[in-house]
Design goal:
Largest sheet: 2 strands, antiparallel
Order of helices and strands: HEEHHHH
Radius of gyration: 17 Å
Number of helices: 5
Number of domains: 1
Structural class: alpha+beta
Strand order of the largest sheet: 1-2
């Protein structure tokens, strides 16, 4: 699992939690994938504002604070890996790149159906 998936799962729930056991026949059990709640029905702002410590972090504009809020180490190495996942193989950690990285995370969450306020996408 990549850094972006870790961020998304920390906000909206883990993809692995979507498996359920159910009995197909009395003598056997099968594991099926449950229909997860679509990310599109989940509000990013609401989910993050309800996390402990959100009032002390500037997660709306800072990739470092966003990663801290969801419990992911915001080290340079992790941000560099996240940047590579999102298409920047030359990440050096500048302020401009961190702003770009935050916007890319917000855009990808929106692209996957999350409700992201327009102000976080611009």
């Amino acid at each position: 699992m990549g850094i972006f998936s870790s961020i998304k799962n920390a906000i909206f729930g883990d993809d692995d939690d979507k498996k359920v056991e159910h009995e197909a026949k009395p003598a056997s059990k099968t594991v099926e994938t449950a229909r997860p709640r679509p990310v599109s029905t989940m509000d990013l702002e609401e989910a993050l504002d309800n996390k402990p410590g959100s009032d002390k972090l500037n997660w709306r504009t800072s990739i470092v604070d966003l990663m801290k809020l969801v419990g992911i180490d915001p080290s340079y190495e992790n941000r560099k890996e996240l940047a590579a996942e999102l298409g920047d193989n030359y990440y050096s950690g500048t302020a401009e790149e961190n702003i770009w990285l935050h916007r890319q995370v917000m855009a990808k969450i929106a692209a996957e159906g999350g409700k992201v306020p327009r102000s976080l996408l611009d």
